[in-house]
Amino acid sequence: MAKKTSRPPSRRALLIGAAGTAFASSASMGLAQAVPSPAVKRNVSSFRVEAWKDHFDNLRNGAILSDTTSRMLQYWSEDESVYRIYPTSVPLSEELTRLGYTEVIQKKVGPSWAPTPSMKRRNPDWPDYWPPGPDNPLGTHALYLSWQYYRIHGTNDTRKIGRKSSNGCIGLYNEQIAELFDLAKVGTQVKLI
Q: Burial letters for 90-109: b for 16+ Cβ neighbours within 10 Å, e otherwise?
C-alpha cells in the first residue's frame, strides 16, 4: 500500500488558525481580563548611548556628552577607566537650548543662584538671588560651563529629571551630580547634542 504524503499547512492556514486561537482565548478570558492593568512607571529618557570617538578627538581631562533628545548624560574619564550614564532634565524649548562644544570652567559645592535677565523678564516675581541651601534651584553641586549662564547642576525637584523642564541648564539628581562633580575637573570637555 502506498504511503500518503501530507503537505505542510500553508502560511495562510497557519495565520488563520493562530488568529482564531487568539480570538477564542481572549473571548474566554472574560471582560475582567480585558481591563488594562494600572499604569506602569516608565523612564522618559531613551538612553541612546553614543561613542565618545564620534564626538571628541581625545579624552584629555575627561569628556561629558549631554544628549538633549535622549535626556541623558555620559561621562568618560581621561584614561577610560570610568564611564557613567545619568538621566537628565533638559531645556524646555529649542530657543533655550544651546548645542555644541564647551568645557567646565568652575566647580561649586553649594552654589547660589540668580535668574538670568531673560528668566527675570519671563518671571518678574522670581527673586533676584537665591542662597545655597536645600531649596536652591541648582541643587547641591554645579559645574559651570564656558557659556554664560549654562550649568550642569543638581536639582531638588526630582520630577524634572527625564523631562524638558529647564531654562537652559542640564539637571541631574543631587546624588548623581555629586558623583559627576567628583569625577569631572576644570577643563573637562563638554558637548551638548
A: bbeeeeeeeeeebbbeebbe
CB contact at 8 A, 188 and 62: yes
Query: For residue 179, which phi and psi values (nearest 5 degrees)?
Result: -65, -45
CATH superfamily, domain 88-188, is: L,D-transpeptidase catalytic domain-like (2.40.440.10)
The SS3 of residue 33 is helix
Catalytic residues: 153, 169
Residue extents of the structural domains in the chain: 88-188
Lowest mean pLDDT among 23-32, 44-53, 93-102, 124-133: 23-32
Note whether 91 and 99 are within 8 A (CB). no
